[in-house]
Amino acid sequence: MEDKVKVILLGSGFSMFGMRARIALEEKGIKYEYMEQDLTNKSPLLLEMNPIHKKIPVLIHHGRPIYESLIIVEYIDTVWGSNAPLLPSDPYQRAQARFWADFIVQKVYHASRRIWTTDGDKKEVAKKEFFESLKQLEEVLGDKPYFGGDTFGFVDVALIPFYCWFYTYETFGGFKVEAECPKLISWAKRCMQKESVSKTVADEKEVYESVLDYKKKFVLS
Ligand code: GS8
Question: How far apart are the CA of 72 and the centre of ligand 1, in A?
Answer without folding.
Answer: 13
